[in-house]
Amino acid sequence: MKINPILFVFCLTLSMAANAQQLKLSGKITFERKENMFKQFEEESGPWMEQMKKRMPKYRTDLFQLTFNTHKSVYLLTQEEENPTAANQFWRVSWNNAVLMDLAQKRMQAEKAVYDRNYHIEDSIPVYTWKLTGEYREIAGHLCRKATTIIMDSLYIIAFYTDEIPVSSGPESFTGLPGMILGVVIPKIYFTIFATKVETQLIDEKEFVIKPFKKSVPMNRTGLFKEVDEALKDWGKYGQKIYWRVVI
User: Fold this and answer.
1) Which tens digit of pLDDT belongs to each residue from 200-246?
2) Ordered domains of the chain (ranges, CATH)
3) Rounded to the nearest 5 degrees, what angle is found at the Cα of 228, between the Cα atoms of 48 and 90?
4) Which of 12, 87, 99, 144 has CB atoms 3.0–4.6 Å from 160's, for a disulfide?
């Protein structure tokens, strides 16, 4: 039987694409979370501020790893910013979040640290109203589409997801797009979270766990946000920035 060469190449291409898609159903993603420290203090001036800028890097950089398969993901801190000034206690709010998503059950667990108090969160996975755009960029070797949303009425979020990894998850609590989120930009708090490496591999179910922080207080997301908002109500503009760190 004579085989049409064009049809053969077409079928081979489809087969290779399908196999590649299968290879990206589980693995590990390294994320680099960067915060512009100078921007945090741009409204401050004087000798004290100039001395602070000399001691700290422009960006605070922390590394996280997202381990995932088709039904679960876990996001954990792997390397904290080493510069002691950039790791100042004032900004150590939700800096080391651990987040476990059960995508099949639509439930989440998280450990969050807010100054001297730790919280164990159990709740449903947050639902975000995403707006897809026609903009694209490459992140960690994957073509990503831009999407946007607003949370807590005023916090604008930009995300970049790839359908080359058909798992609806991402860093922190961001989910709900038709593919893995590999990039997040939060302009109001000068945060970016971008994948730097994607590794495809089989994942043991035992990896989908988070260790409770010391003396974590059990709470749902609404209770946490209410408690933190109440504690920061007299902190002015800095209180708002701290609150936004907690809600992501």
Assistant:
1) 999 999 999 999 999 999 999 999 999 999 988 888 877 888 899 89
2) 26-221 (2.50.20)
3) 20
4) 144
d(CA 120, CA 117): 10
DSSP letter at 101 equals E
Give the tokens for residue 76.
């954990």
Residue whose tokens read 């922190």: 172
Measured distance CA(6)–CA(142) in Å, rounded = 28
Q: What is the pTM of this model?
A: 0.86
Nearest CA to 194 among 239, 139, 146? 139
Residues with Cβ within 8 Å of 81's Cβ and at least 6 positions away in sequence, in order, are: 60, 61, 62, 87
In 3D space, the residue among 64, 48, 57, 63 whose CA is nearest the CA of residue 84 turns out to be 57
